[in-house]
# Entry
Amino acid sequence: MPEISRFYGIIISIFYDEHNPPHFHARYGKNKVVIDIRTLEVLAGEISSRALKMVKEWASQHQQELMHDWELAQANKPPEKISALD
# Structure
């Protein structure tokens, strides 16, 4: 589970060779959520509303990079790091 970003205690990861739709995982404490890269909708799980707002804000700023990392991971190549939320 390659970590691609970390900010305010939130860890963002993209797994290798996963199912569609393109998505990423966010972990905050013991809670986890799966977010669709294209729509930024929650596909599974839940985290606090405050953390979710930060994750979605970050993802909206980095959608192209997230899609690039998704494509790398699907090809079993390591995804690139993405800058944290400012």
